[in-house]
Amino acid sequence: MLCPADHDITEFVLCGLSFLEHSMASGSSNGVLRPLLLGILVLGVFVTVFLMYFKPDKSWFCPVESVSEHVKNLISTKSDKNATIVLIWLWSLGSKFDFSVCSSLFEIDNCFITADRNLYSKSHGVIINHRDISGDLSNLPQLQRPSFQKWIWMNFESPTHSSKLSGIQKLFNLTLNYRQDANIGVPSGTIVPAEGEENFVPPSKNKLVCWIVSNWNPQHDRVKYFNELQKHVKVHAYGRAFEKYISDNDLIPTITSCKFYLSFENSVHKDYITEKLFNPLSVGTVPVVLGPTRQNYENFIQGDAFIHVDDFSSPKDLADYLLLLDKNEEMYLRYFEWRRHFKARKVQFPVEHACLTCDYLRRHKEYKEFNDLDKWFWGS
């Protein structure tokens, strides 16, 4: 007795049951056949339902090209035979991005950014983030370095918050860092020309001074300064230490709502000027900075665009000045004169770092090594 394959599922089941009854009625070993036949029937029903209603993806039957094969095919084409390959080996910046945007975003052509370690031997540059290097260096590439390849030491934390590791002093060819004297210098932001002259008017404000802090340490200079400053002027402080969490979506609106923002760095080092400066600059809030010297800041931004704590003999003097500016709109608006011809541009983190690395490698194919990393970055 056979059940036609073109029956619907209900008819198939009924046919199967009829077949089971017929078999057991005619067999002398019902005790043995019954469980076996029932199991076969259940399995048949399951397979039939699966094939009727589930349509597998073609990739089940056709192998999907691996990432490495895809890139190999791209760089093997005639138009891309001179492509520069940048391999991201260690990268814990918490942000993934489209590896193919160097051309569209920065007009940097013939760059292939990849995280596929199978392409190590073909990569012109290997980016290694300092914070991800294990203490015994065991997670660094173990294969011999090709003669044309450069290892790039990347670090955007300050020396105070970067552990010195034994064995990396003479390991790298290039530095990718916030410092202006790095081989590939990428500050947290830049001041760029505006499109025509603009009579900039800052957004309306409902707070005088604000501060958003995530890393709270009573021993930090910025915390000590804040503790004194708040004795003389109200500071709207946010963060874990104040039990006032600010989400990523609320960060910029909060800064925008304040006349002044405390752009206090967590440590003081040459060129260590982070997004804490460029966030308020970009939204029409005056940054009050604590970090390297005023002269160092003025390498990045016009001197009349910010207030430096070093310009005042004490936190009380600074507080008095902020209260004065609050009452004198003409004086306050002078801090936005630079916006007539310029605007603040924040770096596109981290895609810009990878693309600028590729651009550097394209333009600098000569041999290069860096043998004084400890002295250069940590000063010893």
UniProtKB/TrEMBL annotation:
It comes from Oreochromis niloticus. GO terms for molecular function: 4-galactosyl-N-acetylglucosaminide 3-alpha-L-fucosyltransferase activity. It catalyses: an alpha-Neu5Ac-(2->3)-beta-D-Gal-(1->4)-beta-D-GlcNAc-(1->3)-beta-D-Gal-(1->4)-beta-D-GlcNAc derivative + GDP-beta-L-fucose = an alpha-Neu5Ac-(2->3)-beta-D-Gal-(1->4)-beta-D-GlcNAc-(1->3)-beta-D-Gal-(1->4)-[alpha-L-Fuc-(1->3)]-beta-D-GlcNAc derivative + GDP + H(+); an N-acetyl-alpha-neuraminyl-(2->3)-beta-D-galactosyl-(1->4)-N-acetyl-beta-D-glucosaminyl derivative + GDP-beta-L-fucose = an alpha-Neu5Ac-(2->3)-beta-D-Gal-(1->4)-[alpha-L-Fuc-(1->3)]-beta-D-GlcNAc derivative + GDP + H(+); a beta-D-galactosyl-(1->4)-N-acetyl-beta-D-glucosaminyl derivative + GDP-beta-L-fucose = a beta-D-galactosyl-(1->4)-[alpha-L-fucosyl-(1->3)]-N-acetyl-beta-D-glucosaminyl derivative + GDP + H(+); alpha-N-glycoloylneuraminosyl-(2->3)-beta-D-galactosyl-(1->4)-N-acetyl-beta-D-glucosaminyl-(1->3)-beta-D-galactosyl-(1->4)-N-acetyl-beta-D-glucosaminyl-(1->3)-beta-D-galactosyl-(1->4)-beta-D-glucosyl-(1<->1')-ceramide + GDP-beta-L-fucose = alpha-N-glycoloylneuraminosyl-(2->3)-beta-D-galactosyl-(1->4)-N-acetyl-beta-D-glucosaminyl-(1->3)-beta-D-galactosyl-(1->4)-[alpha-L-fucosyl-(1->3)]-N-acetyl-beta-D-glucosaminyl-(1->3)-beta-D-galactosyl-(1->4)-beta-D-glucosyl-(1<->1')-ceramide + GDP + H(+). Pathway: Glycolipid biosynthesis; Protein modification; protein glycosylation. This is Fucosyltransferase. It comes from the Eukaryota. It is found in: Golgi apparatus, Golgi stack membrane; Golgi apparatus, trans-Golgi network membrane. It is an enzyme of class 2 (transferase).
